[in-house]
Fold 4286_t:CDS:1.
Amino acid sequence: MKKLIIWTKSFLIFFICNIANIVLIFANDSTLCFDRPDPLKPYYLERVSCPMVTENETYSNLKRDTNMFNLTFICGINDQTLCKKVKSAFESAEKILSDTILFKQTVNVNATFTNICAAYGACNTVNSGIETQVIGGAAPSRVMMLRDDDGVNRFYPQSLVKQLGNTNHPKYSDYDINAIFNSENVSYWFKEDGNIKYNQIDMEMVILHELVHGLGFISSLNDYMNDPPKGLTPYVIGILNTTGTNYHFIEDMFDKLMSVVSTGQSVSDIVKQMDVFGDVQYVTPESFTITFESSPQYKLATDLFSKATIPNSLSLLSGDDTIILETSLTPYNYKSSIGHFSYQEYSNTSDFLMRYSVEHGVTLQQYVAMGGNYANGPIGPKLRAFLKSLGYTVRDSTSGTQIRISTIISKTKLIILSMLIISLMNFITSPCEINGFPL
Ligand SMILES: [Zn+2]
């Protein structure tokens, strides 16, 4: 059986908000900002000071035909040839995104390529006899709470805040996206290598997937109170910000676009019903947890958790587009569940990129071909719609048509993919080690 690489959770979302209507929260001349120092730990956030600052320069023009990513690349290995290849793969992935999104300001990426088992203790693990390969991870390095056009406070990834073009804004972190990739025990393929081997994965595809997570394809839903998880909530202000005694649930922008398939109810609406504890002060996070878990509102969290492990339960709504999210993994996997396109639904389609797993032996261009040779390349029509709803300015598609299964796929390849899908079901039991990795 081929070994699959599980991409961890990273996140995406569609948005309907009109970015021009977004209002920064200026209370006390500052807003709430959290940094995510370790992209391998997507739910570990640290409160940071981000006083309002005023810039002299205005950023109002959308840049075209320019690589709008500014990469700081740390290569922690001695093989300089491999280092150059990885950097080149970054540039290719950045160009794809720069051709898709019209940015006003550069997106600063801090990426490291190193032995992450030795450096970060994120090593391969075996669960139920299945080995989970660590590839890497990426996420927004800072999120900022803004008041959205529907009056709800949500966390925006810094890279999106920069596109609003405000001269007044919370202080930015030096980097918009933190990313890390594993140099050991993974055989990467690069464009200049010739034919891909059966045991290789396309580095450019991994990077592209992770950068999309870093731009905001990430959900706040997680269990911040129990391990193993029992219920899902957005970020819990009061638990994250341990100096506070007021407890609120604050979602990511991604979550604004999420809905329950069976009822059509928005996750934002559920969170609003959940968020009734802010008027009471709790001495410790534990006392809040006890109160919340014995309240009627806790059923909202356990219901969400239940839906996260039932296929076709949660979706993203972006204009007329619906994206079925990954809710087939059992048990729930905090790095792969919810924050990805459904593997079952979008394999062999033009929206393959944000599935949680990637197969060995298939290049990014081969995935595009298998999805029907979408004219706009690897950023598929549903992902483009999501990025637009999130608030980015997305170029018009050359073609919005999504075609399933290209006739150029050989029968042999289809069979292999079918087998991989079956074997993937086994993988579902193994935890993704990378945020934004297992794709
Ligand atoms: Zn991912």
In short: The pocket of zinc ion is lined by residues 7-10, 209, 213, 340, 356, 436, 439 (CB under 6 Å). Residues 1-28, 399-437 have pLDDT under 50 and may be disordered. The first strand starts at residue 5 and ends at 6. DSSP finds twelve helices and 24 strands in the chain.
